[in-house]
């Protein structure tokens, strides 16, 4: 079954009485070149296990199954398993798990399904919950080597933006703390059914074995970063003071101790400077 043929996709959906859900952000890939390129970018072979999030009708899942040793696809829409039973028929190295990835114990799932295998994540993520999914994958320190995902282009730029640059946001710093991100290629709206209103992009996050900075308190550093970017038009001194509920003089003293100018804005600080700032600030 050719799952990138629009007539085939429409027929499949019609036979199963399936209508795409905007609530689940469903857009199926119909450009035949996209999924093979994604899987190739993921750099996996028969020795690898792969977690896919949101398989849809299985376009990417099939490509993954042809290369990987095992694929576990997590799908939140309980209407899709009957379609996947049909589209993935004959592929004995795929398991579909029905559930919300944000509520799934991924560490337990990986241990159960991929014992002894290197593990990667490869997925076309639902755009409305991209950041929560990416942060869950990173913050839980799962035994995964890398993450290759398609997201909205704007989100890709934000996730990959280097700390200390204009495009960086709080999530950029978090991503760089846990991984080395790289923008791979863009995907036009016409590559999907129905076509979204935005351009997409595929990124790869190579997870660090050890973070590039070592703050005294990791959570305190991220609180300081989020507080600073909560009012990114202001200086770090003003934004962090307001966001953390700390007197401005204490924030200014911490900035000075960390060697950061009092006039610095949130996106001008490096990850190392945020670590030094939160260390100087102490418990809040």
From TrEMBL:
It comes from Ruthenibacterium intestinale. This is Ribosomal RNA small subunit methyltransferase A. Its EC number is 2.1.1.182. It is found in: Cytoplasm. The keyword Cytoplasm applies. Residues 34-209 form the Ribosomal RNA adenine methylase transferase N-terminal domain. Belongs to the class I-like SAM-binding methyltransferase superfamily. rRNA adenine N(6)-methyltransferase family. RsmA subfamily. The keyword Heme does not apply. InterPro entries: KsgA/Erm, rRNA_Ade_diMease-like_C, rRNA_Ade_Mease_Trfase_CS, rRNA_Ade_methylase_Trfase_N, rRNA_adenine_dimethylase, SAM-dependent_MTases_sf.
